[in-house]
Design goal:
mainly alpha, two-stranded parallel ribbon, 9 helices, disordered N terminus
Length: 221
C-alpha cells in the first residue's frame, strides 16, 4: 500500500474514545448517540472508555459556580464529584445545597417538585425551561455565559488527512436526523464544526476559564 494512502486512512482496529466523564451524564449520552453512526460510516468499531476526572476539580460545573461565588461573594464551598450522575443524587438527598447540571438530567426532578431551578448558565434563556431566568437576569453579571461546548479531540500527531476524515464523519453523525432530533430534545445544538472553528472556540473558552481559575485560586491535584 502506498505510504501516502496509509497516512490518509484510519488504522483498522477498534477506536477507543476516552471520555473524561462518568457514565450516565450528558457527555456520555451524547457520545453514545454518535459512536454507532461513526462505526457504521467508517466501517470499524468505536468503543467508549469512561474515565472520570479528578473529582470534578476544574470542571465546567465547578468553574461556573466559582465564577458566581467570587463576584457575588457567596462563599460557596466546592464539593467535588466525578460527574452529575453522582452530584444530582447528592443534592436530592440533601448532602449538598446546590448543584449545576444539564437540564435534561434535572427535568424530571424539577417536574416532581424535588428541586428548584434558580438560573441557567447560558447567555439566553434555555428553550427547555423558558420560565427560568439566566444568571445575568438574576445577578446582574452582564454577559455571563458558561454554556458547555462539547467536542472530540485527537492526538496532536494525528495526520491532518485523518483529522479531516474524522471531522467530516463526526459532523455527518451529529447532523443525522435521528441524532439531531435527540440532541434537540436534550437542548443541544448539533453544530458539527470544522477543526479550525473548534480550535478558535477553544481559545476563547480557555481565556474565559483561565480567568475563573485564577480568581478562584483553583489548584491541580
Amino acid at each position: 500500500m502506498p505510504q501516502a494512502y496509509r497516512h490518509n486512512r484510519i488504522p483498522f482496529k477498534p477506536v477507543r474514545v476516552i471520555l473524561p466523564f462518568a457514565a450516565g451524564g450528558l457527555p456520555d449520552n451524547m457520545m453514545r448517540m454518535v459512536t454507532p453512526r461513526l462505526s457504521e460510516s467508517l466501517k470499524q468499531p468505536f468503543v467508549i472508555d469512561n474515565r472520570p476526572g479528578a473529582g470534578g476539580i476544574g470542571s465546567l460545573h465547578h468553574l461556573t459556580m466559582e465564577a458566581l461565588s467570587g463576584p457575588l461573594k457567596l462563599g460557596l464551598i466546592n464539593v467535588p464529584y466525578k460527574g452529575t450522575a453522582q452530584s444530582v443524587p447528592a443534592m436530592l438527598s440533601g448532602e449538598v445545597s446546590l448543584a449545576t447540571s444539564a437540564l435534561p438530567l434535572l427535568a424530571p426532578h424539577r417536574a416532581g417538585g424535588r428541586i428548584k431551578l434558580l438560573a441557567v448558565n447560558t447567555l439566553k434563556r434555555a428553550t427547555q425551561a423558558l420560565d427560568a431566568p439566566n444568571v445575568a437576569e438574576v445577578t446582574g453579571l452582564k454577559d455571563f455565559d458558561y454554556s458547555p461546548v462539547i467536542g472530540i479531540l485527537a492526538p496532536a500527531a494525528t495526520p491532518r488527512a485523518i483529522v479531516n476524515h474524522l471531522s467530516d464523519a463526526i459532523a455527518q453523525a451529529v447532523r443525522h436526523p435521528e441524532v439531531a432530533q435527540r440532541y434537540t430534545t436534550l437542548g443541544i445544538d448539533p453544530v458539527g464544526s470544522t477543526p479550525e472553528e473548534y480550535a478558535e472556540q477553544n481559545r476563547a473558552d480557555f481565556e474565559k476559564y483561565a480567568k475563573a481559575v485564577r480568581a478562584a485560586g483553583v489548584k491541580a491535584e
